[in-house]
Amino acid sequence: LEDGSGQTADWQVSGSGSRVGRVVDTFRADKVLRYRANECSVSSKTGSGGGGVQLTIPSSVGQDQLTLSMDWFLQHNTSLSVTYAVKDKKPHTFHVHYLPSDTLLWTRGTRSIYYGVGLSYGWRRFTRNLLVDLQKGVAAMGHVPRTLRKISRSRVQVLSLQLCGEGRLDNLTLATAEHLQHFYAAADWLTRHQDHTGGWPITVPRTIVKDILQLASGWYSAMAQGQAISLLVRAAHHSGDLTYLHAAARATHLYTVNSTQGGVRAYFPGGYAWYEEYPTTPSLFVLNGFIYSLIGLYDLKETSTGPVSAKASELFNTGMTSLKTLVPLFDTGWGSLYDLRHFTTSRVPPKPARWDYHTTHITQLLL
């Protein structure tokens, strides 16, 4: 839609002091779009905008092109608004706004959805799945018609983009997918937010069994650690950047720390080590989360060398011994159990795995 050369997008400018132009950016050594929208505002009641720099999306853009990406120079007053039309018995219009904030998501009224994109300024690659952002935002509104609780791709059309404040952008596109950009956005987020333990704390409380098995905010999950390791290993392999591999190696530390001391390692009677998806006291021994944690260790041991590979191998082999020994305890003869809570907690019956979890167990064990 916009490549900075001026040969593509037809931006409409309104409001006193608003303007748009194309300049050579010294950092990028290329032409980019520079804009200013001094009187840009969005009504909290209607969600409609006033002033600003706006681009009407051409009719040639297909309804399946709902992944937005661009190189964006953010300043403290910069924001981007996307206007959607959603087909229903009565058509609905929504406005999704992206702006510098550490608040992840909030809504106003029944039309406006806000996403904080962080407080880092300067050039950055910005990629969003617009359908996902719309669905999450509408769900966050609470009281919405049943027909809007799940919005299919075929019902959504992007009408326009509005730029507010001051900033610059380049390589603005709408596409069907940008998987590689999302992949690196996730890998980079993991490297930025890894804490001193090598982990990624879960910032919401979790209740598994009321008054018996609960976790306060700030707990760690072996499943999350394993899946993060798998992602980081692939990022290192694809990019050649060892920063990702070093982060994956640090993520193994919590496998060595007992769950009673803030880690993810528990022991089944007989001394069998288990890496807990939910490190409760008493322990749960969730099967699918444990296997995901093992897959992460396998990925790391196969793609690293020296002490990193040796540590990952030791943790993996210890876990595999436990899995081979204890997996019969999960077999009901007609399905599988989700965990072993009935072994460790009195007055709690066995928890059969739902069919989708049972299918996951089969797939994991085959792997």
From TrEMBL:
Any Pfam family: Glce_b_sandwich
One GO cellular component term noted in the UniProt record for this chain: Golgi apparatus
UniProt domain D-glucuronyl C5-epimerase C-terminal: residue ranges: 194-365
Membrane topology: Single-pass membrane protein; Single-pass type II membrane protein
Pathway: Glycan metabolism; heparan sulfate biosynthesis; Glycan metabolism; heparin biosynthesis
Broad class of the protein's primary localization: membrane
Record-linked SUPFAM superfamilies: Family 10 polysaccharide lyase
The EC number(s) this enzyme carries: 5.1.3.17
Keyword tags: Isomerase, Membrane, Signal-anchor, Transmembrane, Transmembrane helix
Residue ranges annotated for the D-glucuronyl C5-epimerase beta-sandwich domain, each copy included: 53-165
Gene Ontology molecular function terms on file: heparosan-N-sulfate-glucuronate 5-epimerase activity
InterPro entries to which the protein is assigned, alphabetical: C5-epim_C (IPR010598), C5-epimerase (IPR039721), Glce_b_sandwich (IPR059154)
Catalytic reaction annotation: [heparosan-N-sulfate](n) = [heparan-N-sulfate](n)
GO biological process: heparan sulfate proteoglycan biosynthetic process; heparin proteoglycan biosynthetic process
Protein's cellular compartments: Endomembrane system; Membrane
Family as reported in the entry's similarity comment: Belongs to the D-glucuronyl C5-epimerase family.
Protein name: heparosan-N-sulfate-glucuronate 5-epimerase
Natural source organism: Hirondellea gigas
